[in-house]
Records
---
Amino acid sequence: MPLFNYTDEQALGKVASVDTTTVVVEVSDSELLKRLQVNRLAVLQSAKPGQHLIGLISQVTRKKLFDIEESDEEKNNEQNLCKVALIGTMLDRDGERHNVFRRTLESVPEIDANCFALEGAELTAFMQVLSNAAADGKSLTLGKYTLDDNATAYLNGNKFFQRHAFIGGSTGSGKSWTTAKIIEQMAKLQASNAIVFDLHGEYAPLQHDGLKHYKVAGPGEVESGKTIADGAIYLPYWLLSYEALVSLFVDRSDQNAPNQAMIMSREVNSAKQRYLEDGGHADILHSFTVDSPVPFDIRVLLQSLGDINSQMVPGASAGKQKQGEFYGKLSRLIARLENKVTDRRLGFLFQGGADTLEFDWLAKLTDALLGSTKENEQGGIKIIDFSEVPSDILPLIVSLVARLAFSIQQWTPTEERHPVALLCDEAHLYIPQRNMAGAADDISIDIFERIAKEGRKYGVSLVVISQRPSEVNKTMLSQCSNFVSMRLTNADDQSVVKRLLPDSLGGFSDVLPTLDTGEALVVGDASLLPSRIRIDEPTHKPNSGTVDFWDEWQTDARDGRIAKAIDNWRKQNIQ
């Protein structure tokens, strides 16, 4: 039985103007005009039988008209108009299926076609069609439609991750809550595979089967000798690309920077070659490059640089020597390198112990970070806490993990690839706009831009999460085809989201500053309908809840809290 059985008497008005995706409806009765509300749905008769067009009401206006008749008697008239953005087609039948909604426009209304308000029983029935259409085993549940609290809002899980997604919202809008809801559902899948970049440790409370917590080792973990099995992640320096090594060790303002970079390339390559020769890895020797993930001893590199920096060569006169070509030109490079190696904050890079120099260390690391639930029997969703990584090198380290994931997928035979999603929380901190980027940021941006452009064909998906979309790299956002937008109060952030939405839905984003906490506008390939959704509460809430200042100030503060904070600060470890 067809879902819509409207009669002409139920019509609110008739189509007066038709554009490519926009229709203007003239409403004859001003009382009926009151039933039309912006961002609600409307149904229009299609030019094809067995179809109805679904539209989103974007504007409702009442105009006063003044007609001067031949008797010069002035008479007031009203013109009631409703602008509707067409968003899809409802088919009474599609093959064996009945009542099918499609996000395509197979036709447009004719002039004088009837327009009906989608409300009451018809709205509930339509929302159920949407829910049933999405709940086909590929569904990702976010919450309930604001239009109808009885209808569950589903997204297509395939399209959400295939075509990248953006989750944005001001502080306290429910952004982390939404992310936690998505993580919760991913963790329930048999062979889920995702990495969550947790910059502040706020997702630590999430506890589900299929989920594993890791932390980039801080001074406390390094001192106590914790390993991957204990949840401590070490990212040894030899995993860094040549560009990243140069960014970390070479001061670009140094007049000898070009020489230092060139010599580093040569000596790192030589150190890797020596490691392969000593380990008997002849099969790799003929094809490795300076960027290949081959271990090398940083002490050997320091020794080589020191020898070059103090090298004396035969002079013009017999028996006399002169300073070598690079004598003294590497002093600042060596000093920076020695300082980094001994910096306790960078223990996860340089102080991981002999294990991190083993040839099979990379296999252990990637198995932990990229193994699916079924493979590692621990958790397909890996939440990595970067809270103790120094902010000046944070972009380098986050992008290192992203590059590992992308490289593993790239070098895996096509038929054996298992897709992985990267959830980039606080993305503006390590994928900023180009004009706001430093040297470390540039390397991070290059890696993430490549994943955004090429990741789909290698099975790598990005979910970009940020409270400041205006500060996130534009290329990243332009590659996202799904948007979950929470409340945004900053005009620059609002304008970014508006520009990314289809022109016909531009007005739909005007409600961004008025959304309630936990409410979102959802638009994109994964959503059957551009919708306003109230996000369901996750089972475990992240550590990002807003503190109730006024209430807390009416209770006594905890004894010894400041002394404990100072102790933790000195130890660089929260206990």
Note: Confidence is low (pLDDT under 50) at residues 70-75.
---
Amino acid sequence: MKKLLTRLAQYYHFFYIAFAFSAAIFLLYLIIPGESRFRYEFQKNAPWRHETLIAPYNFAIYKPDEVIKSEQDSVKKQFIPYYTKDTLVSLLQSRNFELELQGISGELPALKPETIQQLTSHLTKIYQAGVIAQSPEAHPVLKDKSELFEVSDKMARKIPVSSVYSMKTAFQSLSDSARTLLKDQYENLNQSTNLADYIQANLNYNEEFNALELEKLINSVSLTQGMVQAGERIIFKGDIVTPDKFLILESLKKSYSIKQGYNMDRYLLILGKLILIIACLLILILYLAYFRPEIFREKRHLSFILLLIILMVFSTRFVSQHDFINIYVVPLAILPILLRIFFDSRTAIYALLVTSLLIGYFAPNNYEFIFMNIIAGIIAVFSLDKLHRRSHLVFTALWVLISYSVVYLALSMIQEGNMEAIRWEELEWFAANAVLVLLAYPLIYIFEKMFGFVSDVTLIELSNTNQPLLRKLAEEAPGTFQHSLQIANLAEAVIHRIGGNPFLAYAGALYHDIGKTNQPAYFIENQSAGMNPHSELDYKDSARVIIDHVTYGVRLARKHKLPEVLIDFISSHHGTTQAKYFYTLYKNENPDMAIDPKEFSYPGPRPKSKETSVVMLIDGIEAATRALKEKTPDNLKTVIENMVQQKVDDGQLDNADLTLRDIRIVKETLTEKLMNIYHIRIEYPKENT
């Protein structure tokens, strides 16, 4: 059983890869639509590169979207609104008005029965004409309308808008009629009654009913403009896809998507889609396994790449299902930007290619979509060679906008053949895409916390000497702090020349000796003249104190939640070497005693990256050259050669990805920099008195 568990542990990573790969395939299968694809790809004003196409069945020729939209807009503009007439309002208000006038007729001699009848009849005529709540000019529904439908007793009749009263004009008409009939006694009538109380809207706008009627009219707009008969030739091989032919081909493609459920084996569709998804992910996995094994071996890195691809495919699929949003608003360039920041340019571009191919399966105008997004993504990767300030990402977003716009205009010129036919409004979606690219900045922080990544921005922040740990080092071990600064500057210069991340090397060098804050006085750079606490310890205890600065530094770094990439510098800057000084002294004093070298050895591990290897080399070389009495060029070269060769012979660089060329550049750079640091200064003459 134990042997089985051991073997399972050895293959755990492969089991995880298989699980992650299967989960990604399953999720992508759910996201990507399952309908069959039209077998032909074509471009407007480009040659037809397939065989001569014959219509396989009868199908209608669909109108262009802009024509359909124009006709529907025309229907909306010509639509005559419906107003429901409430006949009870006229009966009730006229009756109440008549009773009111009869009640005050004793006080007003001019209100004779015939006058009351005339005023009541006038109010009835107003209601017969119709009263609406607002004036037609102020009513949005009646704007630019000359007629409306009056619905009464389930019958609709068309009447001029000019014949309808608003509540204001109805009151004015009734008031004018009363003034004409009553003359001098009109003011007395106003004091006895309020004419406005008998004015009420009896034409009501039913929004739901009008919406249904308008929808019926819009739906009645024909979407087609002719038919193509089965067996009819559509286009010859090599013919140019003219706008008319393009319309017919698009109609065939649309009718194919409608008929796709007939006479098709559902299982074959499922199998085909699975094969496409597996093929896309497989080339990504193979790329990582062969060319980026450091990413392939790290579960977090592999999970992050697959998750990012799935999120991008899902976002694009979600947007493509909503007609009011253009698919190009999805900031696909975020994917290569994030991978460029956390990994490298090649991985970013390769993942972009895989993602574009997956989305291209269901994106409209597949070729255009894939072409435009790959160009914009590659430009984004090349433009973002560094991310030290927020302005770098802003410039990258600007380059994405320019890339999309230029490629879109180029393709439109080929397809349309004239500038007037280009849909300039599409540029607005590209601008929105560029703005959304700026979301990469907060996403960097989120993914750093989720997956434990470290970006250049974070490294620059951690390199600030006001960080708590660095401030602690400067106050408690000032000599070590100056030593760390020296190592950081030298490591940054070397990494710039051999390649690598100079920000990582600089930050790692600053923190590599943070463990010396535990007992700073036991390290020579922090000791005052004549004071050496090692004189009170035996050699084993002294070696243990020196070695413990590595293990204590790791604990301190984890306590302050430093990234693991920086902790690697702390744990590996001495590798598995020995505390040579105390080991040699102990060996000289006990020549006949068996000595366990592990008691004087650092716990390791040995450095694995260029950055950690360089810091290890510089750490030993800087300390050795500082101890030289005569810092001449020859002495410096000799020390550097010996120290590097010693590390090579001891196997400390066996796991590092340093080449012989890199080691040569390291030695040359350190010789140059240290000669500049320890250059001979002139002696100033004394002034004669």
Note: DSSP finds 28 helices and ten strands in the chain.
---
Amino acid sequence: MRKILVTTAWPYGNGPIHLGHFAGMVLPADIFARYHRMKGNKVAMVSGTDMHGTPISLKAEEEGMTPKELSEKYHKIIKKSLRDMGASYELYTKTTTENHYETTQDIFKTLKEKNHIYKDTMDLFYCPNCDRFLPDRYVEGVCPHCEAEDARGDQCDECGMTLDPIDLKQPYCSICNTTPIEKQSEHHFLKLSEFNEPLSKWIKEKEDEWKPNVINFTKQWLEDGLEDRPITRDMEWGVPIPNGEKGKSIYVWFDAVIGYLSATKEYTEKWREYWQDDEAETYYFIGKDNIPFHAIIWPAMLMGYSGLNLPYCVSANEFLNLEGRQFSTSRNWAVWLNDVPFDPDAIRYYLTSIMPENKDSNFTWEGFQTKNNEELVSTYGNYVHRVLTLTENKLNGEIKTNKNEVDPEVQQKINETVEEAGKKIDNREFKKALEKIISLAAYGNTYLNQKEPWKNNNPSKTLYNCLNIVKTLAITTAPFMPNSSNQLWKTLNNNTSIHQQKWSEAKKPIKDTKIHKPKPLFKKIENEEIEQQINKLGSEKMEDKQEKIPFEKFQEMDIRIVKIKKATQIEGSDKLLKIKADIGNEERQFVAGLAKTHKPQELEGKQVVAITNLEEAKIFGEKSQGMILAADENDKPILLQPENETKTGTPIK
């Protein structure tokens, strides 16, 4: 029996979490934990809400609340939404518990006693108007790397670069817009630089086991040379520094990673089994932006403290985008976890099928609808419902094992599915595992169609083998879709929860039973339901970031006749066309929502009207260097075109 600690990165308690968070860290961790419980391993899955940090203080000031009140409010929302989505934490806690404060302060004091922490001064921004030092997120300005104008002091959302507030161009206080001044402040620093060599040796041992993105990122950091980092800040909201220093607290990045240890202590008195047993395995499921904290800084802290297990595996996913754009809390470009109106299992299925395991992936509502209707409903759900209904109609719902034989081909397919899907889950290849399982449902449909038990006077053997496939599907889908798998398990007349079953049970033939009346596992999602979700995405429509332009603004626009050279549909989108057009003096690329009303080949050679001096945009992953103009008639785009052939590039005034 393996001892496995499963952890997920701690979300800030400054708002609800979105599907990007869930797909990147919670869902893979939950699949992994559920599988290993079914394998008979001793599993603890822990995490919680990060209640400290400047994002919370900022939000609290905006809403007229204390940081404690605000973080408590959102902790409850986050905790409930995770539970509703089927996340099976043994403990989901928060960083304001007495236990967490004690654990954090113990590590701080121990590292200081061992001379891994020292005091020094540093230059920080100070707002003369607010009369206080400004933590990183209280400073905004122009990114020094990509020139984005709304970069925060800790990170630029546009290019993803980690920043220092001092590096920002044209910095300003995010509270009052005053230009801050530099001022010295005394803080505690972690001697991260002294761990460069031991971390390099340790990460080398992980090269064949961890994802390339984690290894490559970590090695690059180490090759560049680690620098000591401040671990306190000029804010009172946070874990107090041992022995107290007025107006200061422990930096949130330092106390948040300690949460994995404090949460395990809170969960069980036997926490040492996970943290001090050399055979125990700790898995950290995070997003790629958290790699340095989990693959470098936290291991360095553990090395300095000594006596606690280093990470067994840091599994970092890439980013999940939304309709071709990054999730953005500040721009309200997100699907909030507490506001998803669809079956959680259907959402979990789609997110697993597009999980950004090795590269960024893209969530679209139309993609979700397609996956649900064509795979969950038409392939998996349809097969299960056909078999159960035929069993009820042909056999009165009764299965007698002594009258039937296991088809060797079916059993071999079942065995292969169970073994291969299990190996893929254990190796954190969740998409491939799910594909293998769903392929068994497709095989079942083919088998059922070939045998045609509805034409047979003695369909018992065929339905018996089909029910063995159904049983296997129920068990193997349990880590991915916990609710529907348990519903199916109950329909097969089992009194216990499917999550109490062993994974190996999926290979065993079904026992004598009388099934319950079947109900559909999943329901078809209609176009109207998807349109509602599209309209909720901020103030912008899905796959169309181009704004409507007020009439008075047209005098500033370069509007001209352009000629379409080539038009192609953008892969993965039902609405968008990629259009190459001659604008008179050069060729440009446009993205336009015309796919549902115009065939690409019919557009080629046509002259249309376009705005050519708009800022370049990224739509559904493709650059758009302007806007093809159309009139709106009964919600259908009517292209603006010249009455007669006109010289390409002719301006329209």
Note: Residues 365-395 form the longest helix (31 residues).
